[in-house]
């Protein structure tokens, strides 16, 4: 399967990085065994640099549907990548019923979904709602900037509801520009932080008295 993160990173670097402010989040270095509820609610060194694109079980269906739109290896056509990503995001938000009138984000459905998904995890529920509330507004400005650019208009030609893609982009690095609580902690094997971040996240779930959500088997 094609690495979604590679395409997503490529899109951000090439297509829209100039349209957003690059803010840095100060990470808090926490030694093993020193976790508290307060420390679990803030950034952790080495665990907040990865983009967040959602849970795998939510992504697979739409990726399979739209994977034929992926440009072949070696194809440098950014427009094709944009068209794939925009249709992928549209599919993702359709299945969650997040799309409102005039291609807006339906916050009522976002809240209902959050209440169902995070029924026993109130911090994640509130974070999810606040994230969409912020990003649905932030995306308007970013999308307007892109529409005003002749080059961007060409790239967006044929894309599926580009505004929704801007929302998704905002969400992908929301934890880097705002607070990065434990349920957003993720490390990488390459950086040697994967196990550290997973173990710290599990410990924070225990501190909050929550059973760690299990992931679907690969």
Protein traits:
single chain; 218 residues; mainly alpha; Recoverin, domain 1; 10 helices; globular
Instruction: Report the uncertain regions.
Output: 1-31
Strand content: under 5%
> Count of helical segments?
10
The tally of beta strands, per DSSP, is 0
Tell me the name of the CATH class. Answer: Mainly Alpha
| SSE string, helices as H and strands as E | HHHHHHHHHH
Radius of gyration, in Å, reads 18 Å
Helix content bin:
40-55%
Number of domains: 1
CATH architecture verdict: Orthogonal Bundle
Structural class of the secondary structure composition?
mainly alpha
Summed over residues and divided by their number, the pLDDT gives a mean of 82
Q: Termini distance?
A: 12 Å
Task: Please outline the major beta sheet.
Answer: none
The name of the CATH topology is Recoverin, domain 1
Shape: globular
Write the layout of secondary structure elements.
Layout: H1 4-16, H2 37-40, H3 56-66, H4 78-95, H5 107-117, H6 122-147, H7 150-156, H8 162-172, H9 174-177, H10 194-207
Helix pairs in contact: 1-4, 3-4, 4-8, 5-6, 6-8
Subcellular location: Secreted
Protein name: Odorant-binding protein 58d
GO molecular function: odorant binding
